[in-house]
Design a protein that fits this description.
heterodimer, A: alpha/beta, 9-stranded mixed sheet, 6 helices, 13 strands, 30% strand, B: alpha/beta, 5-stranded parallel sheet, 30% helix, 25% strand, electron transport (chain B), transport (chain B), Electron transfer flavoprotein subunit alpha (chain B), ETF_a/b_N (chain B), flavoprotein (chain B)
Chain lengths: 251, 355
């Protein structure tokens, strides 16, 4: 059984982002980039499934300009068997990513696609659901636990939802998106980083995959959120209660 | 000849608009959830957002879609029909298929209703239901959805947070109908019910005869039940949050007692949930719940970017932490450097009883 994992290169989660003065976006020059944390979790889950003997191959896919190869190499260093780089310099929205993944599925024929639930840059939380819709595969989103039953060809997914944990059972092939508590991703060890250099990476362009990048969304501007008024420090509980009652009038 | 063509053109245009306005009630479809015979508050926020799309003119009437089965569905339909003056139609999809919130049948339902109604906008709240279903429905309709919208600039221009709310992105939708949105309910307050009785909207059944029977690819197994006693974190007026400094789940009782005293809901940081002090549905943050209460009190919370993303729109923020350098103090309106294990008992003692 083959598992496909989509991984995205984003600004590192610890970086304090700055909005560009011309409002066209966020400063990415000289800023640390990393694999999206949810994608790390997705890849980790695929690797564990393979290590438990339930899958034979994990293919990592990334899309974007050539710098994405860094992220793909990290994925290979973590343990993915092969990589696919879909090269594009245009902005790719989730709908495009989903269409590209759907067409890759026709070539690779995986039984499971695992993605992070959202990218921490655009915070969209759309791609996994869209791929599943295009493929007409069942989806298990915001997964906090994944249990595969290879014989029955189904996967049981615990999902983190508003009211707690929801459990669904999906027939394979299926799409899963990962939430934070699914697992703790491994670090790539030095020997694996070396090994990764010789793992194969197949290259495609969106055109080769019959996907036209025709955006239906336009970014008008990117701005800073409204700043909060500076607060004050209080020195006692009495002072706090007094201010909450008389100044803020919330109690 | 030119004149005839112009006249024919004008006649065609008029009949086009005429048929457009008579073929359906509303130009906006709200995909709503219901519980215990009423439309859920998040979905009412979606109705508020839908109503604002037309810029206040009557042409933007709203259709509300409800699905499921049984008497509570029909009660909810009545509730929806009188929930907002802009609602002109309630559509009810009555089938066991929609009893559980599985994405596969629901996305197909939205697709079917869109084919029947040709809406210009389709809106749902961006709670876990909306997030799960709407992007899938958008893919079926071959459009890019715009999710977690916090502001509507015009009928096709929206504002949404990115980078954990550290930037706001204004996005224009340039595609064909429908424009699919999910909205953040904390940004669209439900107006107080006015006393003017308005004509109730019509309630009609969705024609499911062409609904493709899927071969049971997904099954809903179970759901942990939420504590009904606690106010809902998503719309509580007061939220009291504890971080990992609470040290264990036993100590979280302090947070719960303070919440009870103030009539509020209990929240938690990711660290507290990861450590097992409280269940996941209490997590406030970029990937947990987004809250915007009147009063948010954070005890033993350092104030990581990802946590702030979930509560930065609160009206008043109070932070109590032993560490004077904790980032939370930069967003707090009132900060107190101290030991929460002393501060909370003192607060419990000195706070006035909730009226």
């Amino acid at each position: 059984m083959k598992i496909m994992v989509a991984i995205k290169r984003v600004i590192d989660y610890a970086v304090k982002i700055r909005v560009k003065p011309d409002k066209t976006g966020v400063v990415t020059q000289n800023v640390k980039m990393s694999m999206n944390p949810f994608c790390e979790i997705a890849l980790e889950e695929a690797l564990r499934i393979r290590e438990s003997g339930l899958a034979s191959e994990v293919v990592a896919v990334t899309m974007g300009p050539s710098q994405c190869l860094d992220t793909l190499r990290t994925g290979l260093a973590m343990g993915a068997d092969r990589g696919i780089h879909v090269e594009s310099t245009s902005a790719l929205h989730p709908l495009h990513v989903a269409k590209i993944l759907r067409n890759l599925v026709e070539i690779e024929k995986p039984s499971l696609i695992i993605l992070g639930k959202q990218a921490i840059d655009d915070d969209c939380n759309q791609t996994g659901q869209m791929v599943a819709g295009l493929l007409n595969w069942p989806q298990g989103t915001f997964a906090s636990k994944v249990v595969l039953d290879k014989e029955k060809k189904e996967v049981t997914v615990d999902r983190e939802v508003d009211d707690g944990i929801e459990t669904v059972q999906l027939n394979l092939p299926a799409v899963i998106t990962t939430d934070l508590r699914l697992n703790q991703p491994r670090y790539a060890t030095l020997p694996n980083i070396m090994k990764a250099k010789s793992k194969p990476i197949k290259k495609f362009t969106p055109q080769e995959l019959n996907v036209e990048i025709k955006p239906d969304l336009e970014i008008v501007e990117v701005t800073e959120p409204p700043k909060r008024k500076a607060g004050v420090m209080v020195s006692s509980v009495d002072e706090l209660i007094h201010k909450l009652k008389n100044e803020a009038k919330v109690i | 000849m030119a004149t005839t063509r112009m006249i024919l053109g004008a006649i065609k245009k008029r009949s086009f608009w005429h048929s457009l306005s008579s073929s359906r009630h509303g130009s906006t479809l709200v995909v709503a959830e219901h519980e215990s015979g009423a439309v859920k508050p998040h979905s009412l926020s979606a109705v508020t957002a839908a109503a604002s799309l037309g810029g206040g003119n009557d042409k933007s009437s709203v259709s509300v879609l409800l699905a499921g089965s049984g008497p509570s569905l029909h009660q909810a339909a009545s509730h929806a029909a009188s929930s907002h003056p802009s609602v002109s139609q309630v559509l009810v999809a009555d089938s066991e298929r929609f009893k559980s919130p599985l994405a596969e049948p629901w996305a197909k339902l939205v697709h079917l209703v869109q084919q029947q109604g040709s809406y210009i906008h389709i809106i749902a709240a961006s709670n876990s239901f909306g997030k799960n279903i709407m992007p899938r429905a958008a893919a079926l309709l071959d459009v890019s959805p715009i999710t977690d919208v916090t502001g509507i600039s015009d009928s096709h221009t929206f504002v949404r947070p990115i980078y954990a709310g550290n930037a706001l992105c204004t996005v224009r939708y340039m595609g064909s109908n429908p424009c699919i949105l999910t909205i953040r309910s904390t940004s669209f307050a439900v107006p107080q019910k006015s006393n003017n009785s308005k004509a109730e909207a019509s309630i009609s059944q969705v024609d499911l005869s062409n609904f493709d029977e899927d071969l049971n690819k997904s099954r809903y197994i179970s759901q942990t039940s939420q504590d009904d006693e606690r106010p809902d974190l998503g719309n509580a007026r007061v939220v009291i949050t504890g971080g990992r400094a609470l040290k264990n789940s036993e100590n979280f009782k302090l947070i719960e007692n303070l919440a009870k005293k103030l009539g509020g809901a209990v929240g938690a940081t990711r660290a507290a949930v990861d450590a097992g002090f409280v269940p996941n549905d209490l997590q406030v943050g970029q990937t947990g719940k987004i809250v915007a209460p009147e009063l948010y009190m954070a005890f033993g919370v350092s104030g990581a970017i990802q946590h702030l993303a979930g509560m930065r729109d609160s009206k008043v923020i109070v932070a109590v932490n032993n560490d004077a350098d904790a980032p939370i103090f930069q967003v707090a309106d009132y900060g107190l450097v101290g030991d929460l294990f002393e501060v909370i008992p003192e607060l419990l003692e000195k706070l006035p009883e909730k009226k």
